């Protein structure tokens, strides 16, 4: 009221009511309604980290370079040490993968990690060999992405709703030419 | 088959219709408030409980949660009023809707007292927010004190203009009888007779039931729901989460009768005088009430929260002026029409 003309105030009130009515009648929802909709990162994402123990030389460079000290080297039965990641600490920076001299650690795009207890977040080397399996939550899943359209953000569906696909099995060790 | 006479009693049907329909309207209005706010804020709102109905049963789930929650009475509170005031709040909030007729024949009160129905309803509704101040005193913490003080100041701000708006309409209609008031709105509704009074009514009810932008006494961002801040479970459902919507329902019902033409039919000609005609008239009143309530809860999604001093100065400087102007318009209509 103070320092504001009466006409301006009335016009502002009418404007905002009109805007609210517009959005009430034609909503533009941006919420990604997980798990019915999942965001599509198009591969540009750092996710869960896998391990091929066959390649690991136990050099511990990954444990040393980890900025959050998330990697601990576990002693296995064959007398060698393999990395295990604490996902309560991991910030998914993938420095360990960049630093690994034998490509024993490999990246994935799995971001949907959830744990019931803190102990479940401590991955041991044998757990790191196999990607975590996401249970089937809903029958139909659709991928969505946020896009700019006409200067504003809108939610776009990529394709039709499809079956929930289980994650692929653990990749086998690729052959590398030395 | 002979229908027993008590089954055709207008009082019974008025009581049943008002009770059942007001419950349905309250559930729908709380759901609509959440869905409208979600739509304006680009969210989805309640959906996961009953996705086909748009999450309507979320309200039932919330009600079950409120009822099953543990009742906590804080140590510092004044126990008697802490327990007694929430039921009194709901009783006083719902009582006005039983004091006004829903059709020419459906009414709980009979003639001499029905004549003063709207006056009595207004009197009861103005007692309602003294109870809110009492709750703030009974709850006895700092947020409740601040909220109660704010509520007391807000009462002074809305009470006179709101009363003045209704008095202007009584002056225009030359009567206070609700049935005659509706009969005079057959072609032109009261909001067109006196638009200024209608504006004052809208602002006054938004202040009285603490709708946005006047949710000051119980604004969660400032005072943690103010006078209701220590209520839990059923007490919260009776006051902040439910009772205040019942008060909104009662105010909207009065507004529908006085300003929106009540059961005055769309096409000229009276409703049929049998039971179905009366129920249809009552349903038409309830539709108008629902639309008014929908507007009040819609304000939550688009309005900011005004400051207390701004609200008081706005009310005493502008709303009171508009109310006096509305009285002048009504006086002109009283002498000219």
What does it look like?
The complex is a heterodimer of chains A (178) and B (337). With 178 residues, chain A is α+β, with helices and mostly antiparallel strands. Chain A has one domain: Alpha-Beta Plaits, CATH 3.30.70. Helix content of chain A is 19%, strand content 23%. Chain A is built from 4 helices and 7 strands. In chain A, the strands form 3 sheets. Chain A has a 3-stranded mixed sheet with strand order 1-6-7, with no helix packed on it. A two-stranded antiparallel ribbon of chain A has the order 2-5. Chain A starts with 5 loop residues before the first helix and ends in a 15-residue tail after the last strand. The model of chain A has no long low-confidence stretch (mean pLDDT 82). Chain B is mainly α and 337 residues long. Chain B has one domain. Helix content of chain B is 68%, strand content 0%. Chain B has helices spanning 10-40, 58-68, 79-99, 111-114, 117-139, 142-173, 178-183, 190-193, 195-208, 220-223, 233-238, 243-258, 275-302, 308-336. Chain B is globular. The N and C termini of chain B lie far apart (51 Å). The relative contact order of chain B is 0.15. At the A-B interface, helix 1 of A face helix 1, helix 13 and helix 14 of B.
Which series of helices and strands of chain A comes N to C? Answer: HEEHEEHEHEE
The overall strand count of chain B is: 0
The number of distinct β-strands of chain A equals: 7
Shape of chain B: globular
Describe how the helices and strands are arranged:
The complex is a heterodimer of chains A (178) and B (337).
Chain A: H1 6-25, E1 37-39, E2 49-51, H2 61-65, E3 71-75, E4 81-85, H3 95-99, E5 105-107, H4 125-128, E6 140-149, E7 152-163
Parallel strand pairs in A: 1-6
Antiparallel strand pairs in A: 2-5, 3-4, 6-7
Chain B: H1 10-40, H2 58-68, H3 79-99, H4 111-114, H5 117-139, H6 142-173, H7 178-183, H8 190-193, H9 195-208, H10 220-223, H11 233-238, H12 243-258, H13 275-302, H14 308-336
